[in-house]
Amino acid sequence: MNLLPKSSSEFSQQEYWEKFFKTRGKKAFEWYGTYQQLYSVLHKYINPRDNILVGGCGNSALSADLYNAGFTSMTNVDISETVIEQMTKQYEKTHPLMKFKAMDLLEMTLDAETFSCFLDKGTLDALMSDANQESVERAEKMFKEIDRVLKVGGRYVCISLLQEHILQCLVSYFHNLGWMIRVCRCEEAEHQEDPTDSRQKKQAASSRFPFPVFTVVCTKFKKMERITPLLEFCPDEKNIERLSSVDQLKERVRSVQHFATLCHQISHDEKTSQDVFIELMDPKSLKKTPKYTLFIVDRQCKSAQKFAAFVVPQGRETDWLFSSHEGRRQLADSAKFQRLLVIHLGRDHQFDSLDSVQTELAGIVSSLQPQGLPANTQIPFLSLGAQVNQRKEIYRAASESTGDYVIEEVEEENDGKPVILRRLIFLSNPNVIQSEARMKNGKVDLKHLACQHHLVMVEELRQHLDAKNPALSSILVLGLGGGALCTYLHQAYPHFKVDGVEIDPIMVELAEKYFGFKPSENLRPHIADGLAFVRDLAATESGERYGCIMLDVDCKDRSLGISCPPPSFLDSNFIGSVKQCLNPHGFFFMNLVCRDETKRNNVMEMLRKSFEIVQMRKIKGEVNEIIRCHPLALSTPAKARNGRKPLKK
Questions:
Q1: Mind giving me the DSSP string for 385-452?
Q2: Beta strands 180-185; 214-219: pairing state
Q3: Is the pTM above the cut of 0.70?
Q4: 549-563 per-residue burial string, b: 16 or more CB within 10 A, e: under 16
């Protein structure tokens, strides 16, 4: 038999509740938790010496449990005469000091300033079933009565799900009265009551309310001019956060509700085909960036090992294994857990140790475990060693072109030996390395190229040098960045002329100061828009023609499905200009980062219209792909000449 209201609007109908209690009989019905689940918060905000008024008591056993705990001065009121008769008969002998009265909470016949506590467990939620004006007026009538019957210093203790309209009405009303407001989360109350039906018990195993339960404590004070009433939020029993505005308090509640709902959905979804990620902010920090980012990765196969968390050390979050969807899938397969939680540590935050991270995240990680695991399951935390901080920030600033950026050094291992890598990161896309250089004895190792896609470009270049191609005497790099590629080319082939084009003058300064870029006669930076540089050069009949052009420019708009290059560099007219800037035997390299197969095919088809040969080389463990284009067929083996289709290596 369905004893719950079919719609929320039925909560406030007196006829419904009369029928409900007659059907339910003497069996207690607990809204939002039992006494055992709520006693810690109740004992904190209610005193045994209080004269307590319980509004909308129903047939809950909460009042009797409080009475047994020493809270004997208690009056219970409810609009249903049926339930008041039931409760009076049930407790008149065992709880003689406890009173029951049939009464409308909107028009109570009780004396003013009689009580020191008004306890409301779900009554406001039942009364204010929606956001329409009638519901708001009902709630405000009850608030007015609560204000009337409470003494100064008395507390309105309201246990609620705090739906948006209830949160707005409740907090705004009492804040305007000058009352102190504290909102506490009651996680224990969120565990559902065991169903009586055995089939339902199996379905409800390890289940939680999709919405969290809160206790709102409003303490009555006389309103004083120029005094702002206190607003506080308690996410758990140990922490209290003082807030500066009603909007800030409402935002804290919404954040908890959003996270709890997401956790409920994730825990009841056995297989998540796409990575779900959650960003966690530290409300006590002035930092505006997430402290943690949690990626939930589900394997599409059963495993005896159900759940684990993997903490990525600071500085390693840009590794393909941790930064890409495919990499995290591979990590989960290697770890052999059915669900793996991959945790990124925010670059702007400090972390003492892996143990401190585990302690802070234990509750949140537990809430994301798959359905069916016991609540006390020990969840393993994995990582790459015990150190969580492998990043050292060297310099941070901002430019008009790229926004905020940071130069940092990260320690990694290579063949069992520690290696220091210096990186340029644009904070608009913090998981992508813009430039990288290996450090040696405190200086940039100019003979080492760290970026994998740069290595592939250089490898392709060497193959053509081996063929003694006379056209290779000058190289144009579009997208100087930290200058690593240009510097390496100059070191490896000092007789070549290497031109690097960069739209942001600050990037050129950074390249010189932090990445060993030293301009010379054969290594020239050009501060210009790469599009305009190429088009102007193509329009000049006597202009220089390059033996090789390399395009390595990132896209600022992450919603396009192509991270490199930007759409303007994929325009057919621009590609035509690139071809004009090449000598007849030259070739063009493009670093393509594209997860959209259709867009990738469109790029390849567009390039084939301008170049005789178009070949693609995928890079293992990278999203990057290098496309090599030739304006003329090469006098090399036949396989290379049949370049109308991309060659995947």
A1: SS--B-EEEEEEEEETTTEEEEEEEEEEEETTEEEEEEEEEETTSTTSEEEEEEEETTEE-TT----H
A2: antiparallel
A3: no
A4: bbbbbbbeeeeeebb
CB 76 within 8 A of CB 56: no
Specify the 3-state DSSP secondary structure of 498. strand
Q: What distances in angstroms separate CA 597 from CA 323, 561, 601, one per listed residue?
A: 20, 10, 6
Greatest mean pLDDT range, 23-32, 105-114, 161-170, 591-600: 105-114
Peptide bond into 565 cis (omega under 30): yes
If you search the block for the tokens 């390595």, which residue do you land on?
Answer: 552
DSSP for 577-634, please give it: HHHHHEEEEEEEEEEEEE--HHHHHHHHHHHHTT-SEEEEEE-TT-SEEEEEEESS--
Handedness of CA 27, 32, 35, 37 (dihedral sign): positive
Residue from 611, 592, 613 nearest 603 by CA: 592
Distance between CA atoms of 184 and 159, rounded to whole angstroms? 9
Pick 368 or 166 by higher pLDDT: 166
HEC string of 542-559? CCCCEEEEEECCCCCCHH
Distances (CA, A) of 476 to 79, 480, 550, 579, 617: 83, 10, 6, 12, 20
Q: Per residue in 363-409, pLDDT tens?
A: 888 888 887 777 677 889 988 876 777 788 899 999 988 889 999 99
In this structure, the number of other CB atoms found within 10 A of the CB of residue 41 comes to 23
Q: What residues contact 96, with CB distance under 8 A and at least 6 apart?
A: none
Q: Please check whether residue 139 is in contact with residue 128, taking contact to mean a CB–CB distance below 8 angstroms.
A: yes
Give the H or E element holding residue 453: helix 452-466
What is the C-alpha to C-alpha distance for residues 449 and 458, in angstroms, rounded to an integer? 9
Digit-coded pLDDT (tens) for 217-272: 999 998 888 888 999 999 888 888 899 999 999 988 888 887 777 776 676 665 55
Beta carbons within 8 Å of 145's beta carbon, 6+ residues apart: 105, 106, 107, 108
> What crossing angle do the helices spanning 14-24 and 81-91 adopt, rounded to 10°?
40
Measured distance CA(345)–CA(504) in Å, rounded: 29
CA atoms within 13 A on the CB side of 408: 23
| 16 confidence band (pLDDT: 50, 70, 90) | very low
